[in-house]
Every structure is written in structure tokens, then in C-alpha cells.
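note to self: the first set is below, dont mix up w the second
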Amino acid sequence: MKILLIEDEKITRITLTNTLRKEGFEVTSCATGAEGMDKLQREAYDLVITDLRLPKMNGIDILKAVKNQNPQTFVIIITAYASVETAVEALKIGAYDYLTKPFAPEKLIAMLKHIEHYHKIVGENKKLKEKLRYTEKDIIVGSSLITQKLIETVKVVAKNDYTVLIQGESGTGKEVVARALHSYSMRRNKPFVPINCAVIPETLMESELFGYEKGAFTGAQKRHAGYFERAEGGTLFLDDIDDLPLAMQVKLLRVLQEKEITPVGGTRARKIDVRVVGATKVDLQEKVANNEFREDLFYRLNIIPIKLSPLRERKDDIPALVEHFLHKHGAEDGRPYITSDLMEKLINYDWPGNVR
């Protein structure tokens, strides 16, 4: 658990920092509210422990700022006996608890253990929900040789951390394959964040991908995390990546090369740990030849290419797909089956939209 300690009394700050580190907590400490807010802008913390009385910026100001930035962050207030009423008021604003000086370190550690236990339960629930979601959405359905080879390819590719470019017609299952890559990888317990580059206006593309700082433009009243930051530790799926404007292609290339982003209005780059999976329904090499897509970005994305076959080329998958969708949707109507004649018609159909 990552903890930020803000305490102006040097002895108290050093003592608490050393005590908490011995208990296995990751602690960053500072002496002023301004320094604490600077650290909060640059890094995420699970818990903030702050003295109520600080020079210039007090603990209540910090509490409000923390809750405004990330309501999930816990805050513990340290206070002198004379200011207990203010500390109680802090609880109403959203503080987890408060401690009156002097206090035994064991009391603080007990609070932290409770918070840590809560984090563990929330994390386990999140993982369970992710597994259930993956079971429903990430299955690659099909019995054809083409699909079986695809599944084996996905399992092998998932173990590597390179960028992947998926090419296939609309409806061939590009996002399904991207989700399968994620769920088979070591990143499976981190976020899978899908976005469609074709639906984001060009004027918003940079701020949506990289986020923006408070005051970056009119209406930017607080810091906004972009898609890259939301996918931290996990996988970012960029569908219709061919629709990225050329100016954004340059910035995406830099992110892939440097593994860092700079939010709009920001002056400091932030390191990121995100696997990028791109997808396109067009021939990107043709776009490169027509100067509509950067060649250097294409090769950076195309480290591991996966090409998906249209349904008309793998008709052996149709019975399995029909059965899958019948059990998923048809059971509600009380008749999860079709006749052999209808199945034959489905197999003989060309499926111009594939599975859509």
C-alpha cells in the first residue's frame, strides 16, 4: 500500500516514516502541504496521512483536494487534542479517521491494517468481476482449423509484451481477440481499456488519450486521466487506429518509443506501463504508400501482426457460433435450437457483415 505522509514536525515525520516502512508499507514523506500536493499531482497514493495544522495549507485543504482528485484515496488526519472538533468535521468531509497527538504507533498501524484488508477485499471482488466478464466476452468461438490456429497464436503472443496489430474486416472479432490477448497475458488482472479512434473528434483526441491538467484549457476545472493512464498496468485497445490524425500518429509513436505521456497542459512526462493493441479493417500498408499513415508508426505497431479471416472463409465455425449465440440469447425465448434446414442456409450464406 502506497502512503503519503505530510507532517511538519521533523521528529514525528521521521519516526512515523521509519515505523511504517518496517511494517512493509511504501511511504513517501514531506513537510508541507504544498509539497504534498505536488507529489499527489505526480503520483497516485492509496492513503494520505496529514497533520491538521500545517504552514499555509492545512489538513482540511489537503483532504478536500485529495477527495476531489480521487475519492477512493483514504485520508487520516493527525491532530492536537485542542482541535478534535475540527477533526470530527474532517470525518464528515470524507476522512477515514483521525488520531490525536500523542498516539501510539500501534494505533495507526491497526488503522492501516484495516484499510489494507479493505483494499484486498475490493481487489479480489474486482478480479472476480473481471474473470466473469472475460468468461462472457473474451471467448473465441469456432471449431475450424483457422480459428483453432488463431487461438493457439493468441496464447503464444499473449505471453510476450510487444505491440500487436490486428487486421480484419468489420465483425471478424478484432476486439474479442484483443480481450483474449489481455486475459491470457500477465496483465489480466489490470484494466483492459478499449477505445474507437474513429469516434473521437480530432480536437479531443490528445486530451482523451493522454489526459489533461487542471487549467489546461477553458472548462478544465480538475485533472483528467486519459485512456493511457486508465489502462496503467493493463492493455489499451485502439480500434480503427487508421483513423488517427497524422499529428496524433507522431505523438503515439513517441509514447510507444519512450513509454511516457505528457498530459495536455502538463510540463512533466509520466512513465506508463501499458501494452498497446491496435486494430484496423483496412490495409495499413496501402495507407502508408499513400502517405495517409506514418511508416515508422506502422512498423512500431506491426511488431506482431494478427490477420483475421472473414466468416465466409471459415464456414466450419458457423455451427459453433450459432450454438453460442442461441445459448446466450435464445434461452430467454425458451427455444435454444434451430432446424437442420435453417443451419444449412446459415452455412451457405456469405455473411458480408461477418459476426455483427
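second set (the one i keep forgetting abt)
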Amino acid sequence: INHYGYEYNCVSPNAKRLWKVFKAECDRLGILYKMQDIISCYKQGYSIQQLSFF
């Protein structure tokens, strides 16, 4: 309570650094994190194709 009070959210003192790390890891792993990109990808749909191991 002393540091953040009764705020609904709390910003880390390292927020900028953490955001950079988060973005870098998402990019490295191919994970979408921007809502606009997520919705765009969702609207494209997906192909129904069975995987083949041979």
C-alpha cells in the first residue's frame, strides 16, 4: 500500500525494460501480442488440413 496505494493497476519501475524484453521474446517465438495483429490474423481464418508425417 505504501508504494502503489489503492491503484487498480501498478506500473513497474522497470516497465520500459520489461516491455522491450516481452516484445523481443514474442517476436523471437512468433507470438502475436498487438491486438490489431491478433484480430487481423483471426479474421484470415485457417486452413483445415491434416498434418502428415510422411
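remember for set 2: The longest helix spans residues 15-29.
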